[in-house]
Amino acid sequence: xxxxxxxxxxxxxxxxxxxxxxxxxxxxxxxxxxxxxxxxxxxxxxxxxxxxxxxxxxxxxxxxxxxxxxxxxxxxxxxxxxxxxxxxxxxxxxxxxxxxxxxxxxxxxxxxxxxxxxxxxxxxxxxxxxxxxxxxxxxxxxxxxxxxxxxxxxxxxxxxxxxxxxxxxxxxxxxxxxxxxxxxxxxxxxxxxxxxxxx
Length: 199
What we know:
Layout: H1 4-7, H2 20-29, H3 38-48, E1 55-59, H4 65-73, E2 79-84, H5 87-97, E3 103-107, H6 110-115, E4 122-127, H7 137-142, E5 144-152, H8 164-177, E6 182-187, E7 193-198
Parallel strand pairs: 1-2, 1-4, 2-3, 4-5
Antiparallel strand pairs: 5-7, 6-7
């Protein structure tokens, strides 16, 4: 009989998006170590598939690692806006993903972007940067539709994070858990993920 750990191998049956290898290689060249993990990507792709015709927002393009997973879950009628303030990192995503007309890459501070968005404008928000997660949470939730996903990662303590990160995570968790507009699930998955749905 196979062991439980073999039956539940996290990477079994998970096929990465075609462009991921090229993006990952270029990410390594830039020594950018803040990209999302494959397990995070697999979850994002699955959740994205539940929103046909949806409007998607990613705060923190980085080099496009999570972006390509989200696109892989979206259908042809969906659209994704991915926002970052670092042109060098976002240029990697532009190089490999700009041909996808469902994607709009925006070079802007995430908090400023949120401030001029209409209310209840997105079905799915992946907040992978300080804006929309540790700053501007209310502005982020304002633009999320009822029934929409709000997803954050990096909730586990990691050696590369500053000491203040644990305090920010604790504050965010208390805010999310205490918000009556949200139903949340905290997942011991990848770097620690919270999936919230707006009521």
